[in-house]
Amino acid sequence: MTDTRTQSIDTDDKAVLRALDDLDLPALTAAVRPLSAAQIVGILERLDRKQRAVLYRVLPKGQALEVFENLDPSLQGDLVGGLQDDAVATLFAQMHPDDRVELLDELPATVARRLLQGLPPREREITADILGYPQGSIGRRMSPEFVSVRPEMTIRHALERVTERLSDAETVYTLPVTDGQRVLVGVVSLRDLLRADPDATVESVMQPATWARVGERAEEAARRCADRKLLAVPVVDNETRLVGILTVDDALRILEAAESEDQARISGSEPLRRPYFTAPVSGLVRSRVVWLLVLAIGATLTVQVLEVFEATLSQVVTLALFVPLLIGTGGNTGNQAATTVTRALALGDVRTRDLFKVMFREFRVGCALGLILGSLAFVVTSLLYGPSIGTVIGLTFVSLCTMAATVGGVMPLLARAVRADPAVFSNPFISTFVDATGLLIYFLIARTVLGI
């Protein structure tokens, strides 16, 4: 059954692409009509800017907004440039305020200003409030469209309030409970309201609230929402007054973006911030070239070390055979530690104050790995090149793995301590550092053991 559905989707995609190539609008309209919003989004992500605008224009009005809201903000920005001003203004006014702010961040200032001015006064005020919070804070990603209830309300009154606000609220499954000064005092779920006595008060069924400060990092608030499996998290100001709400779908989007950014930087490139096929080749080049240049410059340290020990290599040429193996193993060991600790930082399992705990733990892990690999290397190398070379390689593995794991575990914590991105200090820079330092350790051990 799955295979049949997949084939059907592929056929629909081909029909849409064929109609676009022929600029056959009636055929395009017919091909799009049976598709879901998710399928249309998938097609739009693989089209160029002109084709994307053409396809979007033939969508039914009701489906157009759903498709637009499911696009990445970068693609929304591209699409705005291909639509008429009146169509853009209508879409913009229908968006949720938090989604609207994401789109504004992707648009040129003049276009963003024009769209804001075209909003109804109330919507413009709400959007401006969100724009006033710092970039990267949860205030920029929260929704100000929520339903709150009072603790003294009856259940019947609270449900009536929910019903009245169904059309404009971001979510009604988790309801913040506030006092007369909008101070958050708890939360109540819609499920609890529906099964409670209609004449009971909200206070009798509400629960303590897990909340986020409006200025805290969006990723931290989203992680808390996901870890505690909450449908929504109230967002409060410094006086604990309710200003917005973070829903679980927005939290997952924030975490997905953060994960993509970390993975890109760990691998030595900048995040694309848009689907792969919509990114121009020049954008792909820019996302990688700076890192490659930085790493190439860093690799000159390795060349310098080889130059210093050129005489040692000339006396025992066999040593050169093991250079790729050793620096590769050292880099991989450091990368494993850095990736593990960076992930633990993101999940909140590790804090910067745990620096020495992590250092000691990774020291032991590296030492154990070095003893395992070093013992194996000693046996194999001794059989092939003699016990003296085997001793050099075995001791180097022990020293190199211990050093690489310790440095790899500590670097992300140091990055977080100086308010830098831990991913930036992870794999690329650690590999460069470990390559140079590992060779230094290798040749010093070789000189001592071989007496050269």
TrEMBL record:
Superkingdom, natural source: Bacteria
CDD domains found in the cross-reference section: CBS_pair_Mg_transporter
Pfam families listed in its UniProt record: CBS (PF00571), MgtE (PF01769), MgtE_N (PF03448)
Topology versus the membrane: Multi-pass membrane protein
Keyword Membrane belongs to the record: yes
Record's subcellular location: Cell membrane; Membrane
Keywords, ordered alphabetically: CBS domain, Cell membrane, Magnesium, Membrane, Metal-binding, Transmembrane, Transmembrane helix, Transport
GO MF, one example: magnesium ion transmembrane transporter activity
Transmembrane parts of this sequence: 289-309, 363-386, 392-415, 427-445
GO cellular component: plasma membrane
Domain CBS: 142-204, 205-263
InterPro entries: CBS_dom (IPR000644), CBS_dom_sf (IPR046342), Mg_transptr_MgtE_intracell_dom (IPR006668), MgtE_N_sf (IPR038076), MgtE_transporter (IPR006669), SLC41_membr_dom (IPR006667), SLC41_membr_dom_sf (IPR036739)
The protein's role, per its UniProt record: Acts as a magnesium transporter.
Complex and partners: Homodimer.
Family per record: Belongs to the SLC41A transporter family.
Protein name: Magnesium transporter MgtE
Protein species of origin: Mycolicibacterium hassiacum (strain DSM 44199 / CIP 105218 / JCM 12690 / 3849)
